[in-house]
Structures are given as C-alpha cells and as structure tokens.
Design goal:
The protein is of the alpha/beta class and 395 residues long. The protein has 14 helices and 14 strands. The chain has helices at residues 7-19, 58-71, 86-99, 110-121, 136-145, 157-165, 190-200, 222-225, 254-263, 265-269, 275-290, 293-312, 331-343, 373-389; strands at residues 28-29, 35-38, 41-45, 103-107, 127-131, 148-152, 173-178, 203-207, 234-238, 248-252, 323-329, 346-347, 350-351, 361-366. The strands form 3 sheets. Strands 4-10-9-8-7-5-6 form a 7-stranded mixed beta sheet, sandwiched between helices. Helix 2 (58-71) packs antiparallel against helix 11 (275-290) and helix 6 (157-165) packs parallel to helix 7 (190-200). The longest helix has 20 residues, at 293-312. The radius of gyration is 21 Å and the shape is globular. The structure holds pyridoxal-5'-phosphate (PLP).
C-alpha cells in the first residue's frame, strides 16, 4: 500500500487536539431558533447570526414554498448564461431601492460578494488598505486580486493615513473595512475612513455583513447609521445573517454593478440562487420595511444581555452591536467556558487562534430579536456559574 500523501493533515489535527482547540461540529436538530436542539440537547442558542429570528418566519417560509411550486428548486445555470430569473432581477431592484443606490448585484454568499468584488475591481498594480481584523473573504479577495495589501492596525485611522501618504497620488487605492467586526462586535471607523478616502482619492468599500438588518434605518447598515450615503463606493451586505436565508450583495453605482456582471468570477462561474432563496430574501425586505419594531426588539435584547454580562464582571471587549464576546484569554480556557456553558444549557461557540488573536480566545454571544427575557436571564445565570467556576469572574 502506498503511504498516505495526506498524512500531514492528521499531524496538524493532532496538534489542534494537543492545544485543546480541536472542535466537533455541533449538529442542529430541527429549526435554527432562540432555543434549539444541538447534539441532542435543548440549549439557549447564542451562536447564530439569525439576528431577527427570520430563519423560521412564517411569511418567509411561505414565500419559499410558493416560489418553489411556481419556479422549481433550481435556477439551472450561472447568471451570465441561463440562470438569471425575473425574480433575481426583482430582488436586485428591491435591494437597490432599500439601500438608496443606483444598482445591486446579488451573489451566492457574502463571502462570494466580498472575494468576487475585491478581486474583480483591483489588479496587481493597485493597493488595498485594509483593517487588520477585516473578514477572511476580504483578505482572500485581496490576495486573488494580486494587489499590494497594506494592513493598518484595527481602527487606527492615523496609521491608514500614514500608509496613504507614502503612496503616489495617482496610485489606484481601495480602503476597506468591516462595518461591524464579526469577532469583537465593534463598528468600523467608517466616517474617518470615508474622509481619508476622499482626501486621498481612494475607492471606499465597507463589508456590512453583520450590519445588514441590524444598523441604520430599517436595517440599512452602517452607511445609513453614520449618515455616509453617497460617500461609500462599494457596500457589501449579506442575506445569510439577519435576512435569514443565504446570499450576499454589492450595492453601488450602475457602472460598478455592470462591471461586476462582466468580471466578478462567482457571478460568472457559479450557479445562481434557487428561486426559493430569492423569494425568501424579498419577503425579508418586506419585513424590514413594514415591521421595523423587530429590529428594536433585537436592540432591547442586546442592551439587556450586554448589561448582564458586564454586571457579572466579564471582559466583553469593545462591542457596540448584538455580537458580544466574552474574552477568556487562552484558547483552551475559552473552549472550557463554551463546553461548560453547553452542559448548563447555553450554546455560545468558543473561538480561538487563528480566528482571533492567541491571547484573546473567547466565546462569542449573539442575541436575537427572538430571544425572550427568560431565555436571556437563563443564559446570564449559566454564565455566572461557569465564569465563577473557571475563575473568570469573582462576584
Ligand atoms: C464580516 C463578514 N463578512 C462576510 C461574511 C460572509 O457572509 P456569508 O455568510 O453570507 O458568506 C461573514 C460571515 O461570516 C462575515 O462575518
């Protein structure tokens, strides 16, 4: 028998086990909701991005069923060949109106939107100025573009300025930041970065994956939240988190979108959404527009839960959003915190290096509009017990 050429992978996995950061996938039985069954245990679920509880909303389920009956289960092609259905165009028009931009292109995921867009609009002659904590899909898009990547320390606008000052004025440059950082829950330095982009003639891009449906009027995102309309050239949003289904989109000028129709590789080379997904997203936009009180509920829950964690004495970092990290330090300690919470009936995923810095391993909590006060209080009580047991808090 020939030696296994992939045996080095087992060595890597053993190393993860030794560090205490090897993870099993938790299996969800039934629906993704505020209390769900994972690995056969009913737990208060603080690990989903289902901010508004829309994954199971009856109107969205109905829209998906109706579209499936009417149009079938698949689009059958990539968008540029035979896979652009009328419903795809309808969603793009609806999103453009919602975001107050000229046009929108929808991708299969937020990851595809970021990676496909950054790699399409930049070339090896260009420079990307990127926050160090930007999402992996931005980093991968930047690498695919072969542009020079200049990373500035998290939210350090002065450092971004120093990078820009050293570049030729006529250099093509993109400044890019997450709107909400997915591991820390803090907001990108959007207003200051927009000012920099204007001063230095840069393209300005924001990834609003965790801000879509959460920040701004009716959940329009951080551009709306900060009053930056017209000052961000490329806005990415996701349909996979607060919107409850799947997908990502880019919002901007007609020229940008037309260019992406021609050059964004996930758009050209990967099959478009099934009609059920697209119809679900349209129904979710109806909810954002007609029932904004659902977003208020999310924020009420967020304030309640964050205050509870702080009162218990946890280090919750600098979060400004429904994402609240509980920072433990060492990777193995964060995993213990996560595992013991799970045993107590609370699912908060542990995150360690390389997802976050080595000494900032954590469990990440995300509350949703669908959580009841009782569920959140149950979770806080469990955090208190486990945190004291592990020496993370005293009181
Ligand atoms: C900041 C950020 N951008 C983009 C994405 C990708 O979005 P999607 O899950 O729709 O691919 C994520 C998802 O984890 C994210 O956290």
């Amino acid at each position: 028998m020939r030696p296994d050429p992939l045996s080095f992978l087992a060595t890597e996995l053993d190393s993860l086990r030794t560090q205490g950061v090897y993870r099993h996938l938790r299996i969800l039985d039934g629906r993704q909701q505020a209390t769900s069954t994972f690995d056969g245990k009913s737990v208060v679920n603080l690990s989903s991005n289902n901010y508004l509880g829309l994954t199971t909303h009856p109107k969205l389920v109905e829209a998906a069923l109706k579209a499936t009956k009417e149009f079938g289960v698949g689009s059958g092609s990539v968008r540029t060949i035979a896979g652009t259905m009328a419903i795809h165009m309808e969603l793009e028009r609806r999103l453009a109106a919602f975001k107050h931009v000229e046009a929108v292109v929808v991708f299969q995921s937020g990851f595809a939107a970021n990676a496909g867009t950054v790699s399409a609009i930049l070339t090896k002659d260009d420079v990307i100025i990127s926050d160090e904590l930007n999402h992996a899909s931005i980093i991968d898009g930047a690498r695919l573009s072969r542009a020079t990547i200049k990373v500035f320390p998290h939210k350090n606008v002065a450092a971004a300025r120093t990078i820009l000052e050293a570049l030729p004025r006529d250099q093509r440059k993109l400044i890019i930041t997450d709107g909400v950082f997915s591991m820390d829950g803090d907001l990108g330095a959007l207003p200051d970065l927009c000012a920099l982009a204007e001063q230095f003639g840069c393209i300005m891009m924001v990834d609003d994956a965790h801000a879509s449906g959460v920040f701004g009027k009716n959940g329009r995102g951080t551009v709306d939240h900060f009053g930056m309309h017209g000052r961000v050239d490329v806005q990415v949003g996701t349909l996979s988190k607060a919107i409850g289904a799947l997908g990502g989109y880019v919002a901007g000028s007609k020229t940008l979108i037309d260019f992406l129709y021609h050059r964004a590789r996930p758009f050209l080379f990967s099959t478009s959404h099934p009609p059920s997904v697209t119809a679900t997203c349209i129904a979710a936009l109806d909810i954002l527009e007609q029932e904004p009180q659902i977003i208020e509920r999310l924020w009420d829950n967020t304030r309640f839960f964050k205050a509870g964690l702080v009162k218990l004495g946890f280090n919750t970092g600098l979060s400004e959003s429904p994402i609240t990290p509980v920072i433990a330090g060492e990777g193995s300690l964060a995993m213990k915190l996560s595992d013991q919470l799970f045993a107590e009936g609370v699912f908060a995923q542990g995150l360690a290096f390389p997802t976050v810095a080595r000494d900032k391993a954590r469990v990440r909590t995300i509350v949703t509009a669908a959580h009841t006060r009782e569920e959140l209080q149950f979770a806080l009580d469990a955090f208190g017990r486990v945190g004291r047991r592990l020496g993370l808090i005293k009181n």
